[in-house]
Amino acid sequence: MTHVKIMSTSDVHGYLFPTGYASRHDRQPYGWLRAAAVLRQLQAPAPDTVTVTIDNGDWLEGSPLASYVATQAPTHATLWSRLLDAGHYDVGVLGNHDFNYGLDYLRTSLAERHYPVLAANVMGAQAQGISDGPYTILEKGGLKIAVLGLTTAYVPHWEPADHLTGLTFQSAVATARSWVPRLRQLADVVVVAYHGGFEADLVSGRATERATGENEGSQLLAQVPGIDALITGHQHRQIAGVYHGVPTTQPGEKGVAVGVIDLDVRDHHVVAAQAHLIQTAPTPPDPQLREQTIQLEARVQSWLDQPLGHLTGASMAVSDSLAARLHGHPYLEFINRVEMTAGHADIAATALFNDQVRGFQPTVTRRQLLNSYPYPNTLVVERVTGQDLRAALERCASFFTVQADGQIQVAPEFTTPKVQLYNYDVYDGIDYTFDLHQPVGHRLVRLRYHGDPVRPDQQLTIVMNQYRGHGGGDYPMFRPEKIIRQVDCDMVSLVQRYFQAHPVVTGVTPHNLTVHG
């Protein structure tokens, strides 16, 4: 009997070191260098055991270090694949955020690798030089182990078209239905590595989100026979277990855990399976890989501490995230101000992306900016109707729930199974009121533009990031056909340019949002 150990990381988002970059001395219980040390231990030779190591995507974007490489040293993007080589990975899979800096950057990042990158449901990926095909077959210990790579099919809803030139995305389930039976004829073990998550509860089958094609993991488990192991990601959840008879993992984000699936194979058939996660916090960063990257990390830390501008007026420091979302905040007003200036629009929307956003201190540094606006979003301006705007605001109003004791909290839909605080927007350029005592869908009780009530058929222009402008976050009233202008410079660069033009910025406390709860 042969033991097969399948290990995975996913959604590292460029967090190599155990830091969230809040300060030079910030330390956190995660980081890929910790995960690499865990993997090195698990990859140690053992009798009758073979190992397979997979990275499941979203490797190139997210951390300030990733931003530094992409914007300041893009020719050094081969760092990412060289690190996976040094970590003895057997396979890579594309994640949705790996497209964030465009195909040229993605190709550069993959240029020096010695492992295959798989993208079975991304048509044209091989021709564009970002994939080696739909699957690979690894021959280890007398076994043939097939790995099929899949990416969430929802990528075109988020990415600008020029980041996806020549690519089309197919359903992960339909693709797996086509490939898994063929791979069963070619291999002893079939592994599906899917950069996507679950749209339903893994035990009850109850839907946990609207079926858009973003997450199809539950359908993969229920509808595609022949999968021996399923690796997932994208949702940043920590999952390990056997569901529908298939051992399944999802190892969180930022290298917080390593997914491990153990298979016992006898006479070329899997006879036993289990899955678990190994938390990386107790393990020090891999010393060899740390030595290779510590100088880069030092340059990033110095780059982050460079001042961008200065503030006066109302404080842009965020100390209470819920209050900022309920009442608006000078930091959010400023981001909307930058959006309106760049997009030449009278209405703007932005999100407080997570509860770790701390806004700006009187001297604004690049560290503060990248920690507060961590995405390389560009902007779009859309022409919408008053009814569209009303529908978007009702979606925002559903973000809150009122407890029995009268306290306002975030509705479970935005925290479970995945935390999605970035799907609530605060608006400027309009005056509006939510009444949380009203049922969801009927909470917007006041909406005015330039002092007048907004009519359903009124034509308005609104600027927002391209994720929201493509309908991301369940905002179907926004879509590409309504775009009238695009601002192709990313938001971080736009904020930096704003400070260059206005070295001292005055913080303004907004009063255009009222919430009754």
How is the topology of this model organized?
Layout (H helix, E strand, L loop, with lengths): L1 E8 L22 H11 L6 E7 L8 H9 L6 H8 L4 E3 L9 H7 L7 E2 L3 E2 L11 E6 L2 E9 L16 E2 L2 H15 L2 E7 L21 H7 L5 E3 L6 E6 L2 E6 L5 E10 L2 E11 L7 H18 L2 E7 L7 H7 L2 H14 L3 E5 L11 E3 H7 L6 E7 H12 L2 E3 L5 E3 L14 E4 L2 E5 L8 E6 L2 E2 L5 E7 H4 L13 E5 L3 H11 L2 E4 L5 E4 L1
Parallel strand pairs: 1-2, 2-3, 3-4, 7-9, 9-10, 10-12, 15-27, 16-25, 22-28
Antiparallel strand pairs: 1-13, 5-8, 6-7, 11-12, 13-14, 15-17, 16-21, 18-25, 18-26, 19-20, 22-23, 23-24
Helix pairs in contact: 5-6, 9-13
Organism: Levilactobacillus zymae
Keywords: Hydrolase, Nucleotide-binding, Signal
Pfam families: 5_nucleotid_C, Metallophos
Structure, explained:
By secondary structure, this protein is of the alpha/beta class. The protein has 2 domains: 2-300, 4-Layer Sandwich (Purple Acid Phosphatase, chain A, domain 2), CATH 3.60.21.10; 307-516, 5'-Nucleotidase, C-terminal domain (5'-nucleotidase,  domain 2, Alpha-Beta Complex), CATH 3.90.780. 25% of the residues lie in helices and 28% in strands. It contains 13 helices and 28 strands. The strands form 7 sheets. The chain has a 6-stranded mixed sheet. A 6-stranded mixed sheet has the order 6-7-9-10-12-11, with helices on one face. Strands 21-16-25-18-26 form a 5-stranded mixed sheet. Helix 1 links the parallel strand 1 (2-9) and strand 2. It is globular, with a radius of gyration of 23 Å. The mean pLDDT is 97.
Helicity range: 25-40%
Range of strand content = 25-35%
Main sheet summary? 6 strands, mixed
The CATH class of the largest domain, by name, is Alpha Beta
- The total count of strands amounts to 28
